[in-house]
Design goal:
Elements: H1 2-8, H2 12-22, E1 26-28, E2 37-42, E3 45-55, E4 60-71, E5 78-82, E6 96-97, H3 103-108, E7 109-113, H4 116-123, H5 126-133, E8 139-143, E9 156-163, H6 170-189, H7 198-205, E10 211-213, E11 217-220, H8 222-235, H9 241-245, H10 253-266, H11 272-275, H12 287-300, H13 304-314, H14 319-323, H15 329-339, H16 345-354, H17 361-371, H18 376-393
Antiparallel strand pairs: 1-2, 2-3, 3-4, 4-9, 5-7, 5-8, 6-7, 8-9, 10-11
């Protein structure tokens, strides 16, 4: 074995194992039908190095590939390869040839893309250009994953490198890992750092959650999203409120909890409305701890009286809620509507009837169709529907503001003498 190493150098397995250590990654041994691989995390992304074989069974070619899924909601595409290789490939994908303004780079590489300004900005990065120029052969592109059979969620594409051989040059592989990290940071963050950058964290929060798994775990979206929510709370910028509100009902309740805490931390009135419906959250995965967190957040935002009124109503006492007149009626009705399918459903239906929430009739009918009248909640829902439908049918007096002035009766102005010509009484003493 030592003789072979001296003759041919270290094996590719040994080189890749060493690479895993240098990039603080993981070496996967592989199996009967899967080759060994190296994976490393950088930022929010997982970079995977492996090989695959392609051919007709008689002549097969081994390829080295590196790939990293990333959030690409704009659908930006580019492709780059050395001049003289794969000519015309990009045109079939609808990409156009682009000169990036660096003569040597433009001479040595064919660069294609669907957004010339973004392509030029990407390759204006000297470090990225140097990493590409260091590769003897390179085919680097963004691969879309659209279609019925895609494992990737909407908005996630893949930065993809391919070489027509099994690479075992440690320095080259290390350069490729560094290059991937630099390109991903540029594509996702435009090359900026992220600790105090609110727009970057809003973008991270908008990425899909969950996991993408092939032979290995390729994408793990939950952790970065949770981290983004926490960072937005720390930064305290009210511009993040809509993005945080959009994930409050996410399937990942840990993310929802982080968003609740962040909204409380921002301490802005606009954070109150999105939180109130969560007081009636009936999802089993949420649990009491989640709703307690929502209640605590609203108390921090100065809405303790509202929390107490809704909580009492869900416990069977609607008195406080009937007396509560400090706004957020729509959000309170939303909370009671959410609670209809939970353990407090009967109390929620009763409370909706007590506060004359005619607006809740569509939601009550939806629950009635779902649960019928076979239990206490269904019976309470049916009773609430009856009361609210009767109230909705009552005639209502027209508001004064609804009557146009021009339609009011006026005294007749028939023909007659000008009032200014009528005789007037003497003003003499």
């Amino acid at each position: 074995m030592n003789f072979l190493k001296a003759l041919f150098g270290p094996s590719r397995r040994d080189v890749w194992r060493q690479l895993a250590g240098e990039v603080d990654g993981t070496f996967h041994e592989g199996g009967l039908f899967s080759p060994f691989a190296v994976q490393a995390r950088t930022g929010d992304w997982i970079i995977t190095l492996d090989t695959f074989t392609s051919g007709d069974g008689k002549t097969n070619q081994t390829f080295t590939r590196i790939r990293a899924p990333y959030f690409n909601p704009e659908g930006f595409r580019f492709e780059i390869y050395r001049a003289g290789l794969l000519s015309g490939f990009g045109k079939a994908m609808g990409l156009q040839d682009i000169d990036v303004g660096h003569p040597r780079f433009d001479r040595d590489f064919v660069i294609k893309g669907d957004a010339p300004r973004r392509v030029r900005r990407l390759f204006n990065n000297r470090k990225i250009r140097a990493g590409i120029q260091a590769q003897p052969k390179i085919h680097l592109s963004v691969k879309g994953h659209d279609g019925w059979f895609s494992k990737f969620p909407d908005g996630v594409d893949e930065l993809h490198f391919r070489a027509e051989r099994a690479i075992k040059d440690l320095a080259q592989l290390r350069t490729l890992f560094d290059l991937f990290g630099d390109i991903l940071r540029h594509l996702c963050y435009d090359g900026r750092s992220r600790p105090d950058d609110v727009p970057i964290h809003i973008r991270r929060l908008g990425a899909p959650g969950g996991r993408i798994r092939d032979k290995y775990l390729l994408w793990e979206g939950d952790g970065p999203r949770r981290d983004a929510a926490a960072e937005l709370g720390r930064l305290g910028d009210s511009a993040a409120i809509p993005a945080l509100a959009s994930v409050l009902w996410d399937e990942d309740t840990v993310l929802g909890s982080r968003a609740v805490e962040a909204l409380a931390g921002i301490r802005h009135p606009a954070a109150i409305g999105p939180l109130i419906p969560l007081l009636g959250d009936a999802r089993r995965t949420a649990g009491l701890r989640f709703r307690d967190g929502v209640a605590d957040a609203l108390r921090q935002l100065g809405k303790g009286e509202l929390v107490d009124a809704v909580s009492a109503a869900l416990g069977g006492d609607s008195g406080r809620l009937k007396a509560y007149d400090r706004g957020y009626r729509g959000e309170i009705i939303g909370a009671l509507g959410r609670a209809l399918e939970g353990s407090s459903g009967a109390h929620a239906a009763h409370a909706l009837a007590e506060i004359h929430a005619v607006e809740a009739l569509p939601r009550l009918r939806e629950v009635q169709r779902s649960v019928g009248t076979r239990n206490a909640t269904g019976q309470a829902v049916s009773a609430a529907i009856g009361k609210l439908e009767a109230r909705a049918a009552l005639p209502r007096a027209a508001a004064a503001a609804d009557v146009e002035v021009d339609t009011l009766p006026r005294s007749a102005r028939g023909p007659g003498p000008d009032p200014g010509t009528l005789p007037r009484g003497s003003q003499a003493p």
